[in-house]
Each structure stands twice: as structure tokens, then as C-alpha cells.
Design a protein that fits this description.
The protein is mainly α and 979 residues long. Helices cover 79% and strands 0% of the residues. The longest helix is centred in the N-terminal third of the chain and has 58 residues. It is elongated and about 160 Å long. The N terminus is likely disordered.
Length: 979
């Protein structure tokens, strides 16, 4: 070990000269060059010269001294060199950690910021850059590291967690992944409004850019489709002209981005519409000219039709006109015939139809008298038929009576207007029908006995079917079928009921015959339904789908092989369609297993090649162990292979691993044997009377302690504990020398701890004693500041931390006392406000003595302003009641209470009543506008809730009905807020 460091010093002296210098240096060399490592160690602890520390860190032969020097360096180049070249693992690691801390600016005396940024920009170590990104002290340093990062997941983490807004914003600017940006937005939207706006703008832009081609295509498709529908109906062209202008403007906004196919469609539709619109305008102009030509002809026809209308109106109101109706109608017909004919057949036909309809109405008037006579004759014939049916001796059928009555109602409905008002036919027919119905009732009573036998058979048939007695049911069904025709003359309702019951029984008998065949077919249909349901099932679990298909196929095979062909084809088709996604999945799995086999074979080749290249005479055990772990992790990271090839490829891999493991086991045993020998030597040094020599020996043994291949954690811990225990026993005497100084430091530490205990005792004060806490705490803090620094740095840091903690604890105790006082005062305040509310709810003449007594018993508030306000409110209400008047209600108080209800409902997240919706919206808009215009932050919900509740108890009086409704509403919102 020493020879290695001598070569690094590159001494210009010969061995003899060096020896003489070393002898001379015993008298003049500094302590950090002393031969005794313990002396050098103590000297380095006090040393601050960085140039000397650099030499020690590079050249001292004792690793612990080099490590102590390394811990004080701040030269990035030197620290990086040591981290790469020092023979001691701990020294290299310490140098690397010190290098990272200095680069991040976490140590006093770190290089200037710009120099560290330049160093970082020259580095190509991604782990170092990432470390600076997370631990850099200055945000400029983190920004420089951020510029070298391209991993968007890492950028997202920085955007969510970095303490500096500029760094978070810079990270967001480098992220282009929408999912990562959305995740960052969810995290920061409630704590960084500026970054939230940037994130939302960027997300909107990225989403718009991503969706822009689809949106342009969709908009182009919609514009073209709408344009192509225009111009089809001439009557709508004027209205569609405005829509064309809108569509043209929309098209111009996306024309540059639209595909060529949409350009062709748009221009074709545009030309088609323009052609249709031009044709429409020409047709409309011709129509106007045509209308002007036809106006005189229409006027002549209109005049004749008007005269015909007047005549029709006159005949309805003036019966004497009927006498000259024929002559006047003839004159109008002649006048109509004299009018010119319009050359458009449709219009001429319309005019002709109008004239003929009115003329026919006049003719109908003439025929009305004849119709009245015919109506009386028809209804008289029906009355005669009813009389003959009533007087006949044959059975009266209800159907015959019903038909006769329906014919009467039909004729009467058609001729009611034609009958004279004094006609006796309706009443006569009603009497005849009543007599027929009475005769029918007598016939029905006689026929009831005939039903008894049929009903008995039918009941027995239904009972047999209920019990499943197929043979009995068949016989009864035949008997019922033979009896049923005898019941043809019973009323239709009963006949239908009995017929329905019989048909149900017949159907059940028929079902019993076909039940066995139907049962199996029904189960097959169920299987078809189950498999068809799998077709619509999501493809998220193909293995489960395949299992269900197989179970359905097994269940099908268990049924009778004889089945309808269409059911088999339906089931087979459903199975094939449902299995298609499973087939694709299993094929992909097979390909994946084959790929995994190739990956594992490649990994075996790499492992075998690596084993063959190892020089077992000079092995790097740490690298071999790491490679062993890496190969094992890679192997297990590869998925499953085919079962057929699994054992062969696994045996091959394990055989190569076994070669490595065998050498590692052998080295482990040899290394443990060496370290056991060092442990025994250390234990032997414990008995040495020469403590200094024993210490030197133990230090030398420590330099030889090297773990090449560690064993189990338990064995390694036991070996190290035994070795370390022996070393500690050797160093124990030196610790005894340090004990005295530690006792002195402990005494000073005890004084500080006693002050901490006194401060902590302040946190136990109760009641009025807490009022003196601030003064006592201030005195103890003054005593603390007057103490010296006669304790170790580590202990001082700990006790300082404890001191600040107990001070904060005492301050929190005092604040809790103040808060409790405030709560008690607020409870008293609420009690007084509630008393005011109850008093205001009374009406003139109610008994208020108990409330007055309760009020006088309430203690006064420490808040003088609140006490005076409540006193004034209570006594003003009391004075009004004593004067026989109602309390002074005000519209302003009502509006204030309604607004307070809305505010509390907004805070609690409850919906306001429908009648308060407009007021709530107005409040929320006003609140948002105030926050935007005035730049004021919205209050914390709990602070605002307290303000609202206090304002509620200060609000003026309202009427009892309003007060009770508003009080219930406010208390509901208040309870919901504090749940």
C-alpha cells in the first residue's frame, strides 16, 4: 500500500536522501506529515489549508486520513480525480458524494455559480445531471441541469415538485407529452396559479394541434354535406341564401387545410346552388308577370263566388229565401259560365271546385227536408223490427238485440239532425230495447244450470294439470271439448271466459306432450344466448372468454345429439365468432413466447461468452457479482417460453450461472478465512500492554480488511462485529482520555437541557397562569443566548434544534390558550345572539320575561363593541315588545340574511333554493369580479365561514316566519360545512 503512494508522489530524491530528509523532518515537519497516523488525523481535523488538504487527500497512506481531507475539499477537478482513482472504496464514494455536494452548492466555499454551471455543461454523466436537477441549491444550477434533460417523465416530476417557479415553468416548456402535462396540471392546479395557466394554455394548444386535422376534416365534411343539401327545394332558396354565406365564410377559414376532395365537393355544391338560385329567380320573375295577367280573371270569378256565399248565408238565416232559391242559383250558374277560363288547369279546377261546393251546399239545403222524411221512415222500420222480435216465441239472442241497438244508434247518429224535435221514435225504441233486455235476463237465468256440469269438468281439468296428472287431464280435456259447444248461447263475456280457460288447459295438455322435446331445445337456446353474449363482451380477458366458450361446448355435447339443424348452426357460428379475438390473443401469446425463447437463448450466449472471457487469476469480483445479478434480473424480466423448450433453456442458463457461482463461493470462503485471521490478530492485540503499538497494529489490520465476495448478511455482520469489537477495545483507552472533556461538555449540555425543560414546563401551564407565558419564555430565551459554545458541534445542533422545538411548542400552547379564550367568547357571543333571535321571534303580547331573565344571567363579552351592539339589539327589541309593538323588522336585514345564507351555502357546497338561484349567481359573479379587479386573494374557507357566522349573529331582525326559514337554512349550511 505504501509503495503505491510513493510512486504517486514522484519524489526527486534517492532512497538514501529521502531517508535523511525524513530523519531531519522529525524536528521541523508539520503534524499533518507526522509518522503517527493518529497525530496526522488530529492535525487534519484542524487543518484548513486547501492546498495541503489536496496533497493529503491524494497521497496519505491511511485511508481514514485521506477521507477526512477529502471531506474538506471543494476543488471539483481534484474531487472527480480522487473519486475515480483512490484505491479505497469509501474514499472514492466520499469523494464522489463531496463532488456532487460541491457541484450542487450544498457546501460552504463551493465554487462560483457560473463555474459550476460551466462544469455541469461539460459533463456527460446523466446520473450526475439528474442529481443536480434534484439537489442543486440555486435555481440557476437546476435550470442548467434541466436544459440537459430530455426524459419527459423526469421533467414532469420536476414540474410538480421543484420549489422554484421558474424551474417548474422551464420543465413544463420542455414537455410535449399530453398525458404527462395533464398529470402535472392535476398536481399543481391548487397551489400554483401561474403554472396552471401555462399548463392549460399549452395543453389547449397541443390538443388543438393534435386534433386540428381531424377537426378540419370534420368541419369540411359538415360544410360540404350541408351545402350539398341546399338548393333542392325552390321555396327555401331565399332562406338558404343566408346559410350559403355562413358556410362560405366557414369554408374560407379552413380552406387552406382541407383536403382536395373537399375542395372539389365544396365548389361543385356551390355551383349547383348558384345554378338553382339563378333558375329560381328567373322563374319567380315569370311568375310575377303571370300573376299580373291573371288578376282580372280571378277578380271576376271571385265576385261570382262571393254572391254565392252571400246566398248561402241568407238561406240559413232567412227561410223565405228558399222559395226563389232555384231561380237565383240558376242566375249564378249562368254568370259563372260567362267568366273567362284560366289557362292553368289546376287553378281553374280550384275555382270551379269552390263554386260547385257552394252551389252543392244550396242544393243540399233543398234536400234536407227530404232527408228528414227518409230518416223518420228508417228509424220507424227499426222500431217495427224490435216489436216483432219482442212478440216472437223463439229465444232472443243477445247478439241480435245488440245488432239492432247498434243499427239504431248508427241511424240515429246519422239522422238525429234530420228528425223533428218532437219525434217520439227515440223513446219508443228505448222502451222496446228495455223489454228485450228483461227477456234476455230470464233466458240467462234458465241457462245457468247448463253451465254447472261444464264448470265442474273444467275445474277438475285445471286441478289435474296443476298436479301434473297427464292421463287424467287428457280425459277431462276431451270431455270439456265435447261439452263446450252446448254453451254457445250463453252471454259472450262468460262464453269468452270459459273459452279462454278451456284453451289454456288445452294448451297446457299440448305443452305436456311436447315438454321433453322443448326442454332440451330451450337449454340449447340458452347456450346460444350465452355464447352470443360473449361476442359483445370486451376483449380485456380472452382467456376467460375461451374458458366460457369451452364450457358451453362441453354442456352442448352432454345434451341429446338429435337437435334442430338451425340451432346447431346458430351455436357453432356464435362459438366461432366469439373465439376470433381469443384466437388472435393466443397467437400473439405464442409469438411472444417464441420471442422470449430467442431472447433467453441470446442471453445464454452472452452469459456463456462472459464466463469464457473472465481471467480467473485476476478477477474483478465486484464486477462478476454485479454481472451475475444483472444476468439473473434480465432472465427473470423475460416472459414465459413454450413449455416444450422451457426446461432445456433453463438448464443451459443455470449451468452457466453455476460456473460463476462456484468461483464466487470459493472466493467467498477464502476471503472469509483471511478476515477471520485478521479478526484473531485484532483480538490478540487487545491483550498487548503497548497501547500505541496495538493501535498501529489494529489500524494496519483495518487497511487489510477487504470484502471481495460477501457471504450472508448474518455471517458478515458477525465477522465485522467481532473484528470491530476487538478494534474498539484497543481504542477504548484513547476514549478514556476524551471522556473528561466530554464530561465538561455534558455539564454545559445539561444546563441547556435544563433550560429546554423549563421552557417545556411552560407548556403545562393552565388557566390564568398562561397569561405570563410570553414573559417567562422571553427571559429563558435571553438566558439561552448568554450561554457559551462549550459543547460539541453535533450536540449543539441537536440541543439547538430541541430548544427551537420547545420554544415553538410553548408558543403554540399560548396560541391554543388564546384560541380557547376566543372560542369561549364566541360561544357566549352566540348565546347572546340566539337570545336576541328568540326575542325577535316573539310578537306583541307574548311573554318575554323568561328571555329577559336568561339574558341578564349571561356574562358580558370581553369584546366591548360586540357587547354594546348585542345589548342595543336586545333592549331595542325588548322596548318595542314592552310598548305592545312588534320588533323593528327591516327589509335591509332580510336581504343581508338572505345573502349570508347564500354565502354559507356556497362555502358548504350546498344548492340554494330555486328562488335564490339568481341572487346566488349575482353574488358569485360579483365575488369573482372583485377578486380579479382588486387583485385580492379569496379568503380561506374557514376564515370566511367564521366571518359569515359572526355577521349572521349581528344581522338585524326580520319577521318570525322569515327568521325561522332563514335560520333553518343557515344552520343546515353551517352544519354541512363543519362535517
Amino acid at each position: 500500500m505504501l509503495n503505491r503512494f510513493e510512486t504517486t508522489l514522484q519524489s526527486p530524491f534517492s532512497h538514501a536522501e529521502y531517508k535523511n530528509i525524513m530523519i531531519f523532518d522529525k524536528f521541523i515537519k508539520p503534524k499533518w506529515q507526522h509518522r503517527n497516523p493518529e497525530t496526522r488525523l488530529q492535525a487534519v481535523e484542524q487543518l484548513q489549508d486547501l492546498s495541503v488538504l489536496s496533497q493529503i487527500a491524494q497521497n496519505d497512506e491511511v485511508a481514514s486520513i485521506r477521507r477526512l481531507a477529502i471531506a474538506k475539499l471543494d476543488d471539483l477537478t481534484l474531487l472527480e480525480s480522487i473519486a475515480q482513482r483512490d484505491p479505497d472504496n469509501e474514499a472514492r464514494e466520499l469523494a464522489h458524494e463531496r463532488f456532487k455536494a460541491v457541484l450542487c452548492g450544498l457546501k460552504n466555499g463551493s465554487a462560483p455559480l457560473m463555474q459550476r454551471i460551466h462544469w455541469l455543461n461539460q459533463s456527460h454523466d446523466p446520473q450526475l445531471i439528474e442529481h443536480v436537477l434534484h439537489h442543486g441549491q440555486e435555481f440557476e444550477m437546476r435550470l442548467a441541469a434541466l436544459g440537459r434533460i430530455h426524459d419527459e417523465n423526469l421533467l414532469g416530476d420536476i414540474a410538480m415538485n421543484d420549489p422554484t417557479g421558474k424551474v417548474r415553468q422551464a420543465a413544463v416548456e420542455k414537455i410535449a407529452d399530453i398525458d404527462i402535462l395533464e398529470n402535472v396540471l392535476k398536481t399543481v392546479r391548487n397551489r400554483d396559479k401561474g403554472l396552471t395557466r401555462i399548463l392549460r394554455d399549452k395543453l389547449d394548444l397541443l390538443i388543438a394541434q393534435r386534433d386540428r386535422p381531424l377537426k378540419v376534416r370534420a368541419d369540411a365534411e359538415e360544410i360540404c354535406a350541408r351545402f350539398e343539401k341546399l338548393g333542392q327545394v325552390p321555396e327555401k332558396l331565399d332562406a338558404e341564401k343566408r346559410e350559403v354565406e355562413t358556410l362560405t365564410a366557414n369554408w374560407q377559414a379552413i380552406a387552406e387545410e382541407a383536403a382536395a376532395e373537399f375542395h372539389s365537393r365544396f365548389h361543385a355544391a356551390q355551383q349547383a346552388f348558384q345554378s338553382a338560385f339563378t333558375a329560381y329567380q328567373q322563374a319567380r320573375a315569370a311568375q310575377v308577370a303571370r300573376e299580373q295577367q291573371l288578376a282580372p280573371l280571378r277578380a271576376a270569378k271571385q265576385a261570382v263566388c262571393n254572391q254565392l256565399d252571400d246566398l248561402l248565408q241568407a238561406i240559413q238565416t232567412q227561410p223565405e229565401v228558399e222559395a226563389e232559391l232555384d231561380s237565383r242559383l240558376q242566375a249564378l250558374r249562368e254568370a259563372w259560365a260567362a267568366t273567362a277560363v284560366i289557362d292553368e288547369a289546376a287553378e281553374e279546377q280550384t275555382w270551379q271546385k269552390r263554386f260547385e261546393l257552394n252551389a252543392q251546399a244550396l242544393v243540399n239545403r233543398q234536400q234536407a227536408l227530404l232527408a228528414t222524411q227518409r230518416a223518420s221512415e228508417e228509424l220507424g222500420k227499426l222500431c217495427q223490427q224490435a216489436e216483432r222480435l219482442l212478440k216472437g216465441k223463439e229465444l232472443v239472442k243477445s247478439q241480435r238485440v245488440q245488432e239492432l241497438q247498434e243499427r239504431w244508434e248508427t241511424r240515429l247518429a246519422a239522422n238525429r239532425a234530420k228528425l223533428p224535435e218532437n219525434s217520439e221514435l227515440p223513446s219508443k225504441f228505448t222502451q222496446l230495447i228495455k223489454a228485450l233486455e228483461q227477456r234476455l235476463q230470464r233466458q240467462i237465468a234458465e241457462r245457468e244450470q247448463a253451465l254447472i256440469r261444464f264448470k265442474r269438468v273444467l275445474d277438475e281439468l285445471e286441478a289435474a294439470l296443476e298436479k301434473g296428472e297427464f292421463h287424467t287431464a287428457t280425459q277431462l280435456e276431451q270431455e270439456a271439448q265435447s261439452l263446450f259447444p252446448l254453451l254457445a248461447e250463453i252471454p259472450a263475456a262468460r262464453h269468452k271466459t270459459l273459452d279462454s280457460r278451456l284453451q289454456v288447459c288445452v294448451a297446457k295438455v299440448r305443452d305436456l306432450r311436447s315438454w321433453q322435446r322443448w326442454g332440451e331445445n330451450h337449454e340449447r337456446e340458452s347456450l346460444c344466448d350465452e355464447v352470443e353474449a360473449l361476442i359483445e363482451r370486451p376483449d380485456d380477458n380472452p382467456e376467460e372468454t375461451a374458458r366460457l366458450i369451452h364450457e358451453a361446448q362441453v354442456a352442448w355435447k352432454k345434451l341429446n345429439p338429435v337437435c334442430p339443424q338451425e340451432l346447431w348452426e346458430r351455436f357453432n357460428t356464435a362459438c366461432n365468432r366469439a373465439y376470433l379475438p381469443c384466437k388472435v390473443y393466443f397467437e400473439e401469446q405464442a409469438r411472444a413466447r417464441e420471442e422470449n425463447l430467442q431472447k433467453k437463448a441470446g442471453l445464454c450466449e452472452q452469459l456463456e461468452s462472459y464466463v469464457a472471457q473472465i481471467d480467473w487469476l485476476q478477477p474483478n469480483w465486484k464486477t462478476i457479482q454485479q454481472q451475475l445479478r444483472d444476468f439473473d434480473q434480465k432472465w427473470h424480466a423475460i416472459g414465459h417460453t413454450n413449455r416444450k423448450s422451457r426446461k432445456q433453456i433453463t438448464d443451459r442458463f443455470e449451468a452457466a450461472l453455476k460456473t460463476l457461482q462456484t468461483h464466487l463461493d470459493q472466493e467467498q470462503q477464502a476471503n472469509q478465512a483471511l478476515r477471520r485471521s485478521l479478526m484473531e490478530q485484532a483480538q490478540a492485540a487487545v491483550a498487548s500492554e503497548d497501547v500505541n503499538a496495538a493501535i498501529e497494529n489494529v489500524k494496519h489490520l483495518q487497511t487489510l480488511w477487504l470484502v471481495t465476495v460477501p457471504g450472508s448478511r448474518r455471517d458478515e455482520r458477525k465477522l465485522w462485529q467481532n473484528f470491530r469489537g476487538a478494534c474498539d477495545q484497543v481504542f477504548e483507552k484513547r476514549k478514556e482520555q476524551q471522556a473528561a472533556r466530554k464530561q465538561e461538555q455534558q455539564a454545559h449540555l445539561n444546563v441547556r437541557n435544563a433550560l429546554c425543560a423549563e421552557i417545556e414546563a411552560l407548556t403545562q401551564l393552565q388557566g390564568d397562569e398562561v397569561q405570563n407565558l410570553p414573559a417567562q419564555l422571553k427571559k429563558l430565551q435571553t438566558d439561552w443566548r448568554e450561554l457559551g459554545q462549550d459543547v460539541s458541534k453535533k450536540a449543539l445542533e441537536s440541543v439547538e434544534k430541541h430548544f427551537h422545538q420547545v420554544c415553538q411548542k410553548a408558543e403554540r400552547h399560548y396560541q391554543a390558550y388564546l384560541l380557547n379564550q376566543q372560542r369561549e367568547q364566541f360561544a357566549q357571543f352566540k348565546a347572546k345572539a340566539q337570545a336576541c333571535f328568540e326575542l325577535e321571534s316573539l310578537a306583541a303580547g307574548d311573554n318575554f320575561n323568561s328571555l329577559q331573565t336568561h339574558w341578564e344571567a349571561l356574562p358580558a363579552l370581553s369584546d366591548i363593541e360586540a357587547e354594546q351592539a348585542l345589548q342595543q339589539r336586545f333592549h331595542s327589541t325588548l322596548s318595542a315588545l314592552q310598548s305592545g309593538e312588534n320588533p323593528p323588522y327591516s327589509e335591509a336585514a332580510l336581504k343581508e340574511r338572505e345573502l349570508l345564507c347564500i354565502r354559507m351555502e356556497v362555502l358548504a357546497g350546498l344548492a340554494s333554493p330555486a328562488e335564490a338561484a339568481a341572487a346566488r349567481m349575482e353574488y358569485q359573479v360579483s365575488r369573482l369580479n372583485d377578486a380579479i379587479k382588486k387583485g385580492e386573494a379569496i379568503l380561506d374557507k374557514h376564515v370566511e365561514a367564521q366571518q359569515v357566522e359572526r355577521a349572521w349573529y349581528f344581522a338585524g331582525a326580520v319577521s318570525p316566519e322569515q327568521a325561522q326559514a332563514l335560520e333553518a337554512r343557515f344552520q343546515q349550511a353551517l352544519a354541512a360545512f363543519y362535517q
